[in-house]
TrEMBL record, chain A:
Designated name of the protein: Heme exporter protein B
Membrane topology listed for this record: Multi-pass membrane protein
Protein species of origin: Novimethylophilus kurashikiensis
Record function comment: Required for the export of heme to the periplasm for the biogenesis of c-type cytochromes.
Gene that encodes the chain: ccmB
Keywords on record: Cell inner membrane, Cell membrane, Cytochrome c-type biogenesis, Membrane, Transmembrane, Transmembrane helix, Transport
Cell compartment(s), UniProt: Cell inner membrane
A GO molecular-function annotation: heme transmembrane transporter activity
GO biological process: cytochrome c biosynthetic process; cytochrome complex assembly
Family classification: Belongs to the CcmB/CycW/HelB family.
Cellular component terms per the entry's GO annotation: plasma membrane
Positions of transmembrane segments: 21-42, 54-72, 124-154, 161-189, 195-217
Automatic annotation (TrEMBL), chain B:
One GO term of the biological process aspect: cytochrome complex assembly
GO molecular function terms attached to this record: heme binding; heme transmembrane transporter activity
Lineage of producing organism: Bacteria, Pseudomonadati, Pseudomonadota, Betaproteobacteria, Nitrosomonadales
Domain Cytochrome c assembly protein: from-to ranges: 29-187
UniProt name for this protein: Heme exporter protein C
């Protein structure tokens, strides 16, 4: 069973590497969206420091959402998703592994890139560290919650917009705790409250989200 | 006929439930109308003017029942979805689907009346208070669930997807509420506290409770009417539906 799941992870990663444009485009979206904000709101360092955490987190949210339809849609289109469902492995684990592959190729690059973009918003060193840590805890949650939405909207008319409408309200707690921790740190308060809650949500998400996503996938493939 | 002699599971079939819903809907709507008139009479003519807020406080007679219903209907909808998923019963999914528009309507009413009350009281149409924000998100969840149902062509898949999303949303509603509350205390400090309700005159409370009951009766009646439409649409090919139509 482990070998099969490892194989699946490797396959998903290889697919992304061989079709780089999807993953890279979502990353570029993250960079461009954050770079637009100083042009829109003005470049005073105090203002940028105030809006920076929120802007970076919202951009991360939207960028993670853009890459969500990659999670199941291609496999659904060429029929391999049905084969994956038939594997002698619990569907929950299959979904968890696919979600992990999605996070490694969409969430992790955001985490690595965020400190660099944080510099554009004049964030101090410790705020940058908290930003990176909060994204490290938060982006897996974005992939996990997003997997439920992606499974529900599989092959549905106007799926992309519908996915956004379904998933964005569910992302709100992640946004609040993530951006809240960074702003707390920037204001000289302890960021650990927000980070601990993000960690708690991540544990909840890891346990329940693959289960819900697997149920949703079964509904969509019925 | 005693309670135990009626076969309650019989009404899990759309064929048996369709006429029952047809009897219950006007009954509940009439109750809603009666209680609503009594409640509104108390609200506008019996209840005294509030010495702090003046006449504008009277909007809570509609606002509070609507806010209660908006949350309660979401829970009921998620429960019907769960029953549907567990027992694979068609009628449960239909009930869940029938409740969604009423719930969304009450959420919208709560938001609009809240804004109308907030303008004279707080001097702002909208405040990013924890309750307001989570109510807005609740509206998004309702609209998302309804959009999902209408986007999927195949009814059975639409039903199940709707139920899964309603359940995921129901788990998220408390998390969203507490996250927004936490965020609110971080950003605004102690701004406006809605949690400490002022001691209310008994007659005001009675007015509110009667109107809340009216909203309950209305929700049941509206859901019954809507579920009849849904059954009629889904079962239009069924022989019993055609026989009933011919008999009429």
């Amino acid at each position: 069973m482990n070998a099969m799941l490892r194989c699946l992870l490797w396959r998903d990663l290889q697919l992304v590497v061989r079709r780089k444009s999807d993953a890279v485009a979502a990353l570029f979206f993250f960079i461009i969206a954050t770079s637009l904000f100083p042009l829109g709101v003005g470049s005073e360092p105090a203002l940028l420091r105030a809006v920076g955490p929120g802007v970076l987190w919202v951009a991360a949210l939207l960028s993670a959402m853009l890459s969500l339809n990659r999670l199941f849609a291609a496999d659904h289109a060429d029929g391999s998703l049905e084969q994956l469902v038939l594997m002698p492995v619990p569907l929950t684990l299959t979904v968890a592994v696919k979600t992990l592959a999605h996070w490694l190729t969409s969430g992790l690059p955001l985490v690595l890139l965020a400190p660099l973009l944080g510099l554009q918003f004049d964030l101090a060193g410790d705020a940058l560290a908290v930003l990176t840590l909060s994204l490290l805890l938060g982006t897996p949650l974005l992939s996990l919650i997003g997997a439920i939405g992606a499974a529900l909207t599989l092959g549905v008319r106007g799926g992309g917009v519908l996915l956004a409408v379904l998933v964005l309200p569910l992302y709100i707690p992640v946004l609040i705790f993530g951006a809240g921790a960074v702003s707390a740190c920037a204001h000289g308060m302890s960021p650990w409250g927000g980070l601990s809650l993000l960690g708690a949500l991540l544990v909840l998400g890891v346990v329940f989200a693959p289960f819900a996503a697997a149920a949703a996938l079964r509904v969509s493939l019925e | 006929m005693g309670f135990s002699t009626i076969h309650w599971y019989r009404y899990a079939s759309p064929q048996a439930f369709y006429p029952l819903a047809g009897t219950l809907a006007p009954l509940f709507l009439a109750i809603a109308m009666g209680l609503g008139l009594i409640g509104l009479f108390i609200a506008f003519f019996v209840a005294p003017t509030d010495f702090q807020q003046g006449e504008a406080y009277r909007i809570i007679f509609i606002h509070v029942p609507a806010a209660w219903m908006s949350m309660f209907i979401y829970l009921v909808m998620a429960c019907w979805g769960a029953v549907g998923l567990a027992l694979n019963a068609r009628l449960s999914f239909m009930m869940a689907q029938a409740l969604a528009p009423t719930g969304a309507m009450f959420t919208l009413v709560a938001l609009v009346t809240g804004a109308l009350w907030g303008k004279p009281m707080w001097g702002a149409w909208w405040v990013w208070d924890a309750r307001l924000t989570s109510e807005l998100i609740l509206l998004f969840l309702y609209l998302g669930a309804m959009a999902l149902h209408s986007a999927v062509d195949e009814p059975r898949r639409a039903d199940k997807a709707f139920a899964v999303f309603a359940l995921v949303g129901a788990i998220n509603v408390p998390i969203i509420y507490f996250s927004v509350k936490w965020w609110n205390t971080l950003h605004q400090g102690a701004s406006i506290s809605l949690t400490k309700a002022p001691a209310m005159a008994a007659v005001m409370l009675w007015g509110m409770l009667i109107l809340a009951l009216a909203c309950w009766a209305y929700s049941i009646g509206a859901a019954m009417l809507r579920v009849r439409c849904i059954i009629a649409e889904r079962e239009r090919e069924a022989s019993w539906m055609n026989e009933m139509r011919e008999a009429e």
